């Protein structure tokens, strides 16, 4: 409520005051303050001046930060874990917010030194299991279970990874002590605080907002300065990094997006009792803008982490731009460049070799996220929350374009399932030393290996991505999508996907030559999936899947038998192909349970 209702713009009767706990490092207080006050821009459009205020907690304060009468931003030390949260207490009947506090862990900014220092048990991939090699922020992405734990969003750990990966990229291109590096940290903290303040104001996540702008707009400095990087600061937004390594001026979202202004307008516009419309009609007029492109919205239950229940490839965590596939391609290009320059740029005298391992593992996490999230295009559906009668309103569903699905499959084949997808020099692998200090979890005593388990890591990257493509729910949706494509479009089918994947995974059986160790493991994973489909008949799979898979296996057995006739095969390749042929014969001849 305005203190001066007659004025076009006035201070509120009671501004929302946030106190900065005196434990916040002095170097970061300005960024925290900026993140809070960012929301004043939205309230100014509603006629409020200084709706939010920031005050510094005195060193000799007589009150405790836990006092419910004070809204505080607290700096917490939680060793080994990045942490950011914006809880609040509200009246369940009126929605009035009584108290709001934000907690930020110091490790969010220390992530460069802490993240991915160890993989505890990455020695091997076992059929049907997922080894404990995944960073904490990726566990929800990689699990396909339907339980709540697999769908939880980890903004804290995910943002820590973005800070860590971005810092390494800056170190590679500009130097870790540059002025640009300090700007990077400042913007990251502004983003974290503004995101959490948004929650205290009642806003939910908007995981579709990152697709509001296209790549050309994001490359435009003037556009970024005016509009930011995304349609909302309530998305989980990655660090904005360029392929050229040049400072892009804006690394993180530090402005409110169109959706943020819209949400605040709906929640906080004062209603004039003298108006000729009801309050419900006033709110309805605001809400009817939902079909506007800049106001696109998708929240937690739309994204579902990245389980197969999330159907829209533009509603993701940790992507950026209207074409997420282009973003994943860029991120893997950056990762390859980091790996190629690892020894030259990060091999510093006096540092231990665990530093190289940390940087390498940050790239592994980028690969894992790209494989899981890009696979959502396959069988994907664009989902809208428009209502009947909205101006420009659209139907709730539209199948992802067939050519876009083919492009996503091309991307996955090139980056994950081709003979050249994973190649590392022996010199690099022999320098990826493990950290040997005692941490709070006594990790050093739980490591089964201290050398780098490269085969286990590559297997995880390939297995998780391949399992996602053969997920039962995704394939069922893909079958339904075959009758939903727009007229004139050549449908992307289950049969096309299976044939193309098989051709890519088993490429050497046609082109000839020996099969490398990463490829042999990929082919074993593929056969494991086929065995599950054809012999165990897991529930939920369309019968067309098993029929096409069986026909394709019979063709594959013929290709393998032909390949075995080639001269010059090494011992590994010859033994592997013999084993594969025998396994296929056992699979296709196994008695099929009648249902």
Write structural notes for this entry.
The chain is mostly helical. It folds into two domains: 16-377 and 422-452, no CATH class; 494-589, no CATH class. Helix content is 44%, strand content 6%. It contains 23 helices and nine strands. It has a five-stranded mixed beta sheet, with helices on one face. Strands 5-6 form a two-stranded antiparallel sheet. β5 and β6 form a beta hairpin. α14 (354-374) packs parallel to α17. Mean pLDDT is 86; it is low at 114-152.
Reconstruct the topology from this structure:
Layout: E1 16-20, H1 29-37, H2 40-44, E2 52-56, E3 71-76, E4 84-85, E5 88-90, E6 97-100, E7 102-105, H3 111-114, H4 139-142, H5 155-173, H6 179-200, H7 215-219, H8 221-227, H9 258-268, H10 279-287, H11 300-303, H12 324-340, H13 342-346, H14 354-374, E8 381-383, E9 397-399, H15 402-416, H16 426-429, H17 454-469, H18 472-481, H19 494-505, H20 508-511, H21 517-536, H22 543-563, H23 571-589
Parallel strand pairs: 1-2, 1-3, 3-7
Antiparallel strand pairs: 4-7, 5-6, 8-9
């Amino acid at each position: 409520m305005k203190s001066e209702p007659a004025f076009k713009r006035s201070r509120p009767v009671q501004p929302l005051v946030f106190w900065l706990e005196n434990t916040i490092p002095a170097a970061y207080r300005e960024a925290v303050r900026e993140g809070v006050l960012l929301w004043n821009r939205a309230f100014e459009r509603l006629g409020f001046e200084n709706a939010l205020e920031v005050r510094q907690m005195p060193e000799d304060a007589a009150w405790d930060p836990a006092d419910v009468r004070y809204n505080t931003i607290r700096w917490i030390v939680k060793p080994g874990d990045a942490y950011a949260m914006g809880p609040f207490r509200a009246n369940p009947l009126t929605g009035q917010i009584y108290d709001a506090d934000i907690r930020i862990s110091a490790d969010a900014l220390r992530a460069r030194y802490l993240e991915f220092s160890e993989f505890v048990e990455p020695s091997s991939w076992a059929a049907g299991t997922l080894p404990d090699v995944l960073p904490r922020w990726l566990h929800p992405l990689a699990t396909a279970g339907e339980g709540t734990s697999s769908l939880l969003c980890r903004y804290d750990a995910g943002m820590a990874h973005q800070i860590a990966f971005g810092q390494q990229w800056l170190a590679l291109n500009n130097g870790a002590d540059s002025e640009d590096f300090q700007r990077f940290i400042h913007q990251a903290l502004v983003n974290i605080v503004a995101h959490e303040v948004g929650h205290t104001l009642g806003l939910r996540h908007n995981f579709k907002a990152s697709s509001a702008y296209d790549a050309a707009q994001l490359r435009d400095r003037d556009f970024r300065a005016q509009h930011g990087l995304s349609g909302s600061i309530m998305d989980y937004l990655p660090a904005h990094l360029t392929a050229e390594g040049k400072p892009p001026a804006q690394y993180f979202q530090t402005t409110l997006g169109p959706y943020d202004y819209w949400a605040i307008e709906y929640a906080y516009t004062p209603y004039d009792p003298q108006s000729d419309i009801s309050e419900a009609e006033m709110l309805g007029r605001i809400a009817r803008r939902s079909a506007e492109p800049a106001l696109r919205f998708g929240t937690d239950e739309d994204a579902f982490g990245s389980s197969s229940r999330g159907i829209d490839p533009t509603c993701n965590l940790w992507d950026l731009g209207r074409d997420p596939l282009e973003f994943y391609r860029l991120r893997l290009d950056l990762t390859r460049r980091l790996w190629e320059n690892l020894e030259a740029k990060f091999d510093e005298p006096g540092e231990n070799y665990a530093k190289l391992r940390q940087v390498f593992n940050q790239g592994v996490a980028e690969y894992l996220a790209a494989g899981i999230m890009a696979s959502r295009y396959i069988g994907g559906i664009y989902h809208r929350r428009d209502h009947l009668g909205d101006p420009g309103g659209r139907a709730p569903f539209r199948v992802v374009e067939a050519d876009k699905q083919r492009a996503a499959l091309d991307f996955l084949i090139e980056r994950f399932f081709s003979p050249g997808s994973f190649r590392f020099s022996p010199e690099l692998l022999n320098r990826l030393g493990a950290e040997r200090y005692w941490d709070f979890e006594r990790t050093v005593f739980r490591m089964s290996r201290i050398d780098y388990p490269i085969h286990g890591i590559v297997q995880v990257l390939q297995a998780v991505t391949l399992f996602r493509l053969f997920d039962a729910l995704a394939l069922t949706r893909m079958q339904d999508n075959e009758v939903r494509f727009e007229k004139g479009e050549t449908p992307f089918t289950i049969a096309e996907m299976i044939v193309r994947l098989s051709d890519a995974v088993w490429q050497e059986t046609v082109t000839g030559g020996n099969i490398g160790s990463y490829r042999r493991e990929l082919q074993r994973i593929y056969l494991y999936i086929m065995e599950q489909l054809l012999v165990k008949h897991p529930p939920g799979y369309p019968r067309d899947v098993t029929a096409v898979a069986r026909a394709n296996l019979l063709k594959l057995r013929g290709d393998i038998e032909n390949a075995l006739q080639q001269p010059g095969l090494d011992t590994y390749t010859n033994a592997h192909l013999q084993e594969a042929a025998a396994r296929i014969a056992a699979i296709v001849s196994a008695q099929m349970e009648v249902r």
